[in-house]
Amino acid sequence: MYEPYAFNLLPEHYKYIFLTWVVMAIMVVLALMARRGLTLIPKGWQNFMESYVEGMLSFMSDIMGGHDARPYFPLIGTLFLFILLCNWIGLVPGFIAPTSNWNTTIAPAIVVFFYYHYVGIRKQGVLKYFKHFGGPVWWLSPLIFVLETIGHFARVLSLSIRLFGNIFGEESLFVVLFSLVPLLVPVPIMFLSIFFGFIQALVFTMLSIVYIALAVEEEEH
Amino acid sequence: MVNLDYTLFIQMVNFIVLVILMNFLIFKPILKILDERRGNIDGAMAEARRLMEEAERLMEEYNKKVLEVRQQALQIVNEGRVQAVEEQRKALAKAREEAEAQIKTLRERIEHEQEEASTALKRMVQALSISIAERLLGRAIGAKEDAKWES
Q1: pLDDT tens digits, residue range A23-35?
Q2: Residues of chain A found within 8 Å of residue B19, distances taken between Cβ atoms
Q3: What whole-number distance in Å separates Cα of residue A177 and Cα of residue A184?
Q4: How far apart (Å, rounded) are the C-alpha atoms in residues A68 and B34?
């Protein structure tokens, strides 16, 4: 189901892993370029990365309310940029989006899952954190515990499948349209891909922030 | 396509390596710079506030000192004026005394001269009247008759 391009030299089955490495290389290059001559007054690439960092920090603070968003920033910052670039690199002819494979999307979802549990336990202690899984009243707690656990695992599934489904669907649509009318018709689909790729990255990131916030602020329940 | 296999773990490793790399390369330095910048701005504002307070305090002191000096100047001027008035009075009194003394001496002299003049005049009148009487009478008048006319 991958695009049947003639100049497709990459090994078919592992294309998405290779392209993940390409995306990682792009991000590292961006980081290195921004890192050159860090000054107090930013200019050039440092400005770009700084605006990204500040924008993401303010976005996180909005969702997390009063808590300080800084300790959780590295994961979320990388996550958004990674998913965005993975989605967009699928638009390059000959490339596919790494996120059009379920393995690629479930990996960040699992990492986020373990991360927010880890953060919650570190902040509140094991017992108190799991006490929340019991729910408001004590005699309902077995049932609610089961429900919460299933819910938490469902978060992993929903995060990964939402992203995978959207991007894979776009790619499939593009392939079909391309095999039908290759001249100009796929172009609107490509614009749509840009837009939806961005939205999917945003949604994944926003939900991760929400899960982290929920794990951290359990006290007020 | 919709199957999970061992590549899941490869992607997980990829992702975690990416997070660590990005954190180390760019996020930590940028966060540090954001903090530093905020620290600088805060420090500069605090410094500016402190300097302004200092300037206000110095201005107040300066004003107070100016007031003091002006009061002192006023006081000195007043004293000077009082002294000047005093001296003026004294000089005036002295001058008046001198003038009066002079006037007295002059008056005495005038009186003295007047007396002398009057006696001289009387004698002249006497001599003149004797000569007139001699002329009239046509003969010399003896001393006895001088004394008669002397009164």
Answers
A1: 999 999 988 888 8
A2: 74-75, 78-79, 111
A3: 10
A4: 15
